Each structure stands twice: as C-alpha cells, then as structure tokens.
C-alpha cells in the first residue's frame, strides 16, 4: 500500500484555493511614514494597520529600543528559563500586571503562542472548552491542541454559551472569548459572560489583543474592567495599539506559576528581545497617560461611522477602531480593494476562510495618527468603489 504524497496534497489544496480566487499573498512594504506606506513603488494611505494609537514609530519607543539594544544587544539568546530573562522583561511584566489590575503577568513571544500555551496548560482531555464562534484562530487552535471537549456558542450570546457549558456539567470548564473581535470589531458581553462563569463554576479567559491600549480606564483594555476574580485569565498583545511585538498573560500568582511550569510555548522558546521589552515599557507609559491620543482615535471612529451613514455605506455595529465594510462576495471585495489601491488607499479584502463564505469585507482600521482629511478622503473613495465593485461582481 502506498502512502499519500503530503506535499502533493498541499499543492492540490493550493491549486484549489487559486481556482476559487482565494489565495492570500504577501505584499512587501518598501517604506513607512506614519500612516503612509509605499508598496510596489506606489504611495498609499494605510487603513489596514493595527497601530491604533500611532505608537509604532513614536520617537520615545525608538529611543528606548535603540538604547536598550546598545546595552543588551539584539537577541535574548535563550528561553526565559535558560538565561534569556533579563531585567527588562521583569520590569515589563510588573508594569503590565499593575496596569491591568492583576497580581502577576508573564511574557510570551506572540499572542498565538500565549493562547496556545494557556489553553494547553489549563485543559485536559476530560475538560470542556467553550468559545465564541468568531474567536481568533489561536484560541480555537489552542482548544483543539489541548484535547478537551470543544464547543462553540453563537456570537456574543451568553444564553448560547450557557447551553454549551451545561452540556457537560461535571467537566472542568473554561470559557474563552475575544474582548474585541478582530474581524467584526464589536465587543464581547464580558460582564454577562463573567456572571455566567460564576454560576457555572467555569473559568473565564479574555483575549484582549484589540482592546489593550484603546479601551477601558487608562487604556488598560476591556478585560481590565473586570476584576481578577471575575476574569482570571487575561491575555493581550504588545504589537497592536502598543506598536511593538509580543504578548502577555496576566492573572493570579498561581496561574502564572503554573504557566511557567506547563505552558510549552513559554518554556521551549527564546525570550522576547530585551530591547523590545524596553520599547513596550515606554509604550505603556504613553498609552496609559495620553488620554488625548485615545480621544483622537474615538473622533476618527465617529467621523468614519457618521460619514459612512451619510454616504449610505453599511457598516457592522462596531464601536472599535476596526470598522468592517461588509460586501458579501469575494470577487466584489477584491474589486473594491483594488479600486481603492488605484485611488491611493491600502484596504485589503478579507475573504473566506478568514471570515465565513458570503461575508467578505473591507476591514478598515483607524488610528489616532489618521487626520480628519485622511478619513474624509477614504469615505469619498469608498462611495465610488463600492457601487463599481458590486456592479462588476
């Protein structure tokens, strides 16, 4: 009996996706200047970045990173447990814990690794993991890798989540949800979910990757609005609103101590470069103290939503910096994205399998670095792009 050729199988899957015009492709950015980027020699106004506060090129972060690199070098050279943990990491973990109102925090190299590490450390095969249907892929993959029973509930529906939790009443249970959903931009009903977890004796985990720095008191995120006892597991990333890279998990001392021992994606990987930890420390100071920057972002969000309504552009009900323009077919979304690029705007189309088939969209992301004029010009371009795209599809 011959074995299947797994490389040929991968190539066949690639060919099928190509026939469906669903191939993802990497675009190389040649230059960045705030919200302006250059791709293939063409200057574009970027509405695809998660740099919500405009910190990625902030002079204070650049200065902190270069000074720390001069002192520590470029890489951490080892895992945290094997000599890669430096003073810069410890200082950042302490600041993250204070900022989010948690007892302790633990750094991970990426948000994907943080979610994978937490879920596989906490869950066993006879446990239950319940998740929102629109959760990020890393939460889904972490649940599957844990071997636990995995059930999904209707988006942002606490009653549906309750039904799934009650399906295995004797199992250890964890309910995981995005705080801000990365493709729809809406916010999970965290207070309802926390109350549900109390009555069902389940543990609530919040992935606040798109809320940290932007929402909540002092920008500590939507997850930090709940006390540690109501939301025992809080994950967030450092590479979106904070403009750096990496991620962290915050919670009780017993959670963090356990993750240090059993989260394989923490134990068996090289630590975040110490210079990046220093830059993240500087970013938190700005994000925490600069309410004006958050207010400017909220102004751009309100301007975009009001302008879209005035132009007859339908948006999903998102209060966040993520503003999806739902189009429907992949062909129409691609057409709209291509038209916008010819007009000087970078707004990639989001298609299946990233979002469900038939819900292709333009995912507009706004930043405090965008000007009022930037948003006004995008609205004008969208008003032209969408009818053309839908007519051509």
Structure description:
By secondary structure, the protein is of the alpha/beta class. It has two domains: 21-53 and 291-392, Aspartate Aminotransferase, domain 1, CATH 3.90.1150; 59-289, Type I PLP-dependent aspartate aminotransferase-like (Major domain) (Aspartate Aminotransferase, domain 2, 3-Layer(aba) Sandwich). Helix content is 43%, strand content 17%. It is built from 13 helices and 14 strands. The chain has helices spanning 6-19, 59-72, 87-100, 111-122, 137-146, 158-166, 190-200, 253-262, 264-267, 274-289, 291-311, 330-342, 372-392, and strands at residues 29-33, 36-39, 42-46, 104-108, 128-132, 149-153, 173-178, 203-207, 233-237, 247-251, 322-328, 345-346, 349-350, 360-365. The chain has a seven-stranded mixed β-sheet, sandwiched between helices. It has a four-stranded mixed β-sheet with strand order 1-2-3-12. Strands 11-14-13 form a three-stranded antiparallel β-sheet. The N and C termini lie far apart (46 Å). The mean pLDDT is 96.
Keywords:
393 residues, alpha/beta, Aspartate Aminotransferase, domain 1, Aspartate Aminotransferase, domain 2, seven-stranded mixed beta sheet, 14 strands
Ordered list of secondary-structure elements with their pairings:
Elements lengths: L5 H14 L9 E5 L2 E4 L2 E5 L12 H14 L14 H14 L3 E5 L2 H12 L5 E5 L4 H10 L2 E5 L4 H9 L6 E6 L11 H11 L2 E5 L25 E5 L9 E5 L1 H10 L1 H4 L6 H16 L1 H21 L10 E7 L1 H13 L2 E2 L2 E2 L9 E6 L6 H21 L1
Parallel strand pairs: 3-12, 5-6, 5-7, 7-8, 8-9
Antiparallel strand pairs: 1-2, 2-3, 4-10, 9-10, 11-14, 13-14
Helix pairs in contact: 2-10, 3-10, 4-5, 6-7, 11-13, 12-13
């Amino acid at each position: 009996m011959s074995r299947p050729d797994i490389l040929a199988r991968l190539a066949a899957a690639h060919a099928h996706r190509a026939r469906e015009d669903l191939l993802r492709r990497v675009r190389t950015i040649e230059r960045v200047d705030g919200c302006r980027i250059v791709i293939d020699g063409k200057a574009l106004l970027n509405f695809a970045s998660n740099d919500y506060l405009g910190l990625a090129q902030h002079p204070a972060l650049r200065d902190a990173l270069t000074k720390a690199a001069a002192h520590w070098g470029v890489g951490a050279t080892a895992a945290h447990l094997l000599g890669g943990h430096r003073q810069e990491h410890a200082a950042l973990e302490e600041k993250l814990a204070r900022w989010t109102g948690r007892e302790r925090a633990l750094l991970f190299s990426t948000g994907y690794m943080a979610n994978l590490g937490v879920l596989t450390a906490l869950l066993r095969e006879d446990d239950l993991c319940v998740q929102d249907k629109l959760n990020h892929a890393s939460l889904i993959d972490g649940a599957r890798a844990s071997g636990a029973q995995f059930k999904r509930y209707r988006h942002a529906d606490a009653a549906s989540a309750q039904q799934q939790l009650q399906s295995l009443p004797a199992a250890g249970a964890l309910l995981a949800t995005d705080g801000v959903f990365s493709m729809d931009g809406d916010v999970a009903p965290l207070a309802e979910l926390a109350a549900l977890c109390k009555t069902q004796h389940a543990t609530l985990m919040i992935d606040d990757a798109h809320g940290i720095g932007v929402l909540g008191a002092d920008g500590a995120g939507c997850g930090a609005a709940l006390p540690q006892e109501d939301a025992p597991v809080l994950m967030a990333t450092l590479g979106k609103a904070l403009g750096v890279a990496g991620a962290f998990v915050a919670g009780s001392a017993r959670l963090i101590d356990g993750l240090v021992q059993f989260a394989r994606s923490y134990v068996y990987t090289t630590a975040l470069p110490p210079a990046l930890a220093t830059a993240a420390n500087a970013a938190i100071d700005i994000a925490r103290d600069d309410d004006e920057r958050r207010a400017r972002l909220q102004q751009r969000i309100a301007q975009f939503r009001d302008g879209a309504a005035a132009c007859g552009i339908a948006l999903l009900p998102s209060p966040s910096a993520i503003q999806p323009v739902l189009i429907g077919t992949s062909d129409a979304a691609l057409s709209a994205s291509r038209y916008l690029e010819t007009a000087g705007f970078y707004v990639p189309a989001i298609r299946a399998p990233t979002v469900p088939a038939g819900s292709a969209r333009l995912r507009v992301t706004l930043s405090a670095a965008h000007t009022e004029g930037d948003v006004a010009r995008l609205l004008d371009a969208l008003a032209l792009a969408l009818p053309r795209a839908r007519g051509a599809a």
